[in-house]
Structures are given as structure tokens and as C-alpha cells.
Write a structure and sequence with these properties.
Layout (H helix, E strand, L loop, with lengths): L1 H83 L2 E5 L8 H14 L4 E5 L5 H5 L11 H5 L5 H4 L1 E2 L5 E4 L8 H4 L9 H7 L7 E5 L6 H9 L2 E7 L8 H14 L5 E8 L6 H14 L12 H5 L7 H4 L4 H16 L4
Parallel strand pairs: 1-5, 1-6, 2-4, 2-5, 6-7
Antiparallel strand pairs: 3-4
Helix pairs in contact: 2-13, 7-8
This protein binds adenosine-5'-triphosphate and magnesium ion.
Amino acid sequence: MKLLRKIKNYRYFKLLSNIYLIIFIIFLFWILFFDSNSILVNLKLQKEINQLIERKIELKVCKREVIHEERKWRNLYNWIHRRIMGKIISISNQKGGVGKTTTSVSLAASLGVLEKKVLLIDADPQGNASSGIGISSNEINLSTYDVLLKKCEPKDAIIKTNSPNLDLIPANIDLVAIEIELIDMNERELIFSKVFKNISNNYDFLIIDCPPSLGLITLNALTASNSVIIPIQCEYYALEGLGKLLNTIKGVQSVHNQDLEIEGVLLTMYDSRLRLSNQVKDDVKKHFGGMVFNTIIPRNVSLGEAPSYGESIIVYNATSKGSKSYIKFAQEIINLNQIG
Ligand SMILES: Nc1ncnc2c1ncn2[C@@H]1O[C@H](COP(=O)(O)OP(=O)(O)OP(=O)(O)O)[C@@H](O)[C@H]1O
Ligand SMILES: [Mg+2]
């Protein structure tokens, strides 16, 4: 009897152990199947992600190349044109204190250092570009005002500066009156264009420092220009009013000057330590994408000090961060306007 019970227990034990073994094997298979499946899924996903990343990069590169190609062909015409005539660039933003004058003076001086012949045209009655390059208001005999009213030839108003390859047509407070004096004149938006196109063949670049308004002077400057640089300060309200400026540019393109291009948007007074600066940088890049210049102008003490010494940043402190960034910017402008 005892033996019989023992055998029965042994059978139960065997059966149980077999069931456990089967469950274990099913579990093992399930684990293996699930795992391999998830590995496969992961690999597939990873592959897709990689492809996406690659395609995105490819698209970016392709887009850049397309932009470059487009620019190359458009530039071919402009380049041939500028073998004879210099390129006229307005620095404009109706918002005050964004770095228009600092950019005009520093870019003009930097282009000069890079062996380009440059004429800086002060078109702001504040005359900051003139004083910033060392020509004080009482030294000015003939100015942009006289040139525009045809009281003198443009070449007679040109002054040589102490910066290499850089000439200046200065301005002072007289220029305030120009908007009233020209009010009854026919084709009053075309005066800059008629006057400065005659002297543009003597220079590689003509840089116009615009006033902080969208009045007749800015309209004239844009009508005479091949392109416009829009400086944007990395500060609160940076994008405010830009719509108006872009509309004005569009208006000029459709009525007076269909060749006017936006050369680019320049971020100025950037401070990498400030979250606001970085936010503005991201916002501007999101809105304007490829139109934003690679060079970003940092906030720099020497850039703020240079005008009070009547010197461009290149002469005042050539090794400063401000000077180096404007040289880099000038090189970017030269590269953008080169063929090949
Ligand atoms: N990158 C910079 N770092 C430090 N200070 C700067 C920088 N750029 C400009 N500034 C200073 O900021 C002030 C305003 O600059 P700027 O005169 O160039 O602006 P603006 O747009 O021409 O002004 P406005 O609209 O009055 O003509 C000036 O005191 C200038 O020295
Ligand atoms: Mg200014």
C-alpha cells in the first residue's frame, strides 16, 4: 500500500514538474519572441529616425545650395553691373538705437581694411556717422543736404577719413529741412538715386546710414540702393515695427526699385549670458531663417566707446571682440557678393 502511494506521489511530482517545465519553456519563448520583436521594432524605428535625420540634413544642405545657386545667378548680373558701378547698401530700421550707425561706420571701415573702396553716406540729420568717424559738425562745409539740393556736386562733398579706403559724405542738422524743401518736387523719391548712381562707379561699396524713420530720406535711400541690411538689437520689442519696414521695402520694390534686395538681418548687441538675448536670437532666426547673417555682433564696450573718440572700431581697438566681429561681417558681405 505504502509503495503504491509512493509511486502515485512520484507520478504527480513528474506531472507537475513537466507542467512547470512547459510553462517555463512557453514563458521563455514568449520572452524571446517579445524581446526580438521589440528589438526589431526598435531597429526599424532607429533606421527611420536615422533616415529622417539624414534627409533633414540633406534637405538643409540642398536648400542652402539652392539659395547659393539662385544667388550666384542673380549675382552674375549684379556682379557685371558692379564691375562698373559699386553696390549701394542702406542700413535701415525705423526703430531707434538698434545699431544702424555703429554698423554703417564699422562695416564701412572693415570693408576698407579688406581693401574695398568704400563711400559712407550719412543720411541722418543727427550726423552720428560723421562724428563717429571723426568729422565734427562744425568742420562740415558741404553735406548730404547740399548734395541732395544740388547745391554742389557729390564729389565736392566727399571727405577722406583716417580709415583706409574709406570716404565720407557727412551730414548735420541741416538735413532735417530736406523733407520740407523737397515736398513740392517731382519724383522726390528718386533724388538719392540720381545723385549717388553717378558716383557709384568710383567705389566697390556705398553704405548709407539711414535715420530712425520711414520718411522721405529713408524712402530715397531705399530707392537708390541695391540692397538693405536690417540691424536688429537683441533686446525686448526687437521685432516690433519690423512689419512696417518690410512693407516699406515691398512698396519700394513694387513702385520705384524692383532690384532692391534684403541683404540680410543682422543681430546686434548680443549678450550670450542673457536669456533675453538668446530668446530674441531664436525668435529672429525662426521668423527670418536664412535671411539672418551668420555673424552676430556682440555687445562690446569698445564699440560703445569708439564714437566718442571719433574713430571707427577698427582704428580705436582692432583686437576687440567688436572689431573682430565687424571684420567677420564685412567678409561675409564680400563672400555673399562674390561669384563662384
Ligand atoms: N555692439 C554694441 N555694443 C555696445 N554698444 C553698442 C553696440 N552697438 C551700438 N552700441 C551703442 O548703442 C547706441 C546706439 O547705437 P547706434 O547709434 O549705432 O544706433 P542707431 O540705430 O544708429 O541709433 P539711431 O536710431 O538714433 O540712429 C550707441 O551709443 C552705440 O555706441
Ligand atoms: Mg544712427
